[in-house]
Specification:
single chain, alpha/beta, Nucleotidyltransferase, domain 5, five-stranded mixed β-sheet, 7 strands, elongated
Amino acid sequence: MRFGNIEEEDIGFQIAPLIDIFFLVLIFFMTSSIFFQMEAELPLNLPLAEDSLYLPRTPGKIIINVDKNGKIIVNQKVYTLTKLKELLERIVALFPNQAIIIRGDKEVNYGRIVEVLDICAKVGIWNVSFATLKKEEKK
């Protein structure tokens, strides 16, 4: 039995999908850095801490702001506790090791911060940081 000669095609490296992914990641990091700048500009009176460390913000961290009235704000939008839970569940489904920064006003009821922490724990977010200002040393 004679088989026909099958010509093997030379499969080359396809760079077009790689370029597409690169641009999508670039757009993601550019927009997330813009959102961070807007979130950091919200007028909150942060609490003071003696051992406050400056940690540079890495792209992708989510900032949850809690103002003195207890409103929860993420990306300039006000969320209820149930809507915040839905948002964080969607984020954790995409990014399981998501980092969160909680910026709570120093006049907010402590229970409100605990409610936000409980939601983070329920959806599986354990990488949580608190934003504070460094306390100036008294002379």
